[in-house]
Amino acid sequence: MTTREHLSLHDKQAAAMRDLLRGWIQGVAEIRRLTLETRKDLRAIAVIQKRTDEKLERMMDSRQTTNGRTKGKA
After folding, report:
1. Fewest 10 Å CB contacts: which of 1, 9, 72, 74?
2. What do you get for the CA distance between the two ends of the chain, in Å?
3. What is the pTM of this model?
4. How far apart are CA 53 and CA 15, in angstroms?
């Protein structure tokens, strides 16, 4: 193998590695974007769940009975 052929092969390998690395970096960026989006969605779900829990608690409190009668009714 001549020096010129060796350098040509080296250049091709370097270009292939660059392409692989570029694709990997793009994949990492996409994973990061999706992770941030998921975190945002989970925070929104947590807020909704907290409201639901509070409403359920209020409903359960209003349905408590005293001496066989529903609280607040005669």
Report:
1. 74
2. 102
3. 0.60
4. 56
Written as one letter, the residue type at 39 is: R
d(CA 24, CA 15): 14
- Using DSSP, state whether 28 is helix, strand or coil: helix
Pair 62, 72: CB distance under 8 Å: yes
Q: Looking at the chain, how many residues does it have?
A: 74
The structure tokens listed for 64 are 């408590």
CA of 54: how far to CAs of 7, 40, 59, in Å? 70, 22, 9
26 has pLDDT over 80: yes
- Check residue 65 and report its DSSP letter: E
In DSSP terms, 65 is beta-bridged to: 70
73 has pLDDT over 60: no
- Residue 70, C-beta contacts closer than 8 angstroms, at least 6 positions apart: 63, 64
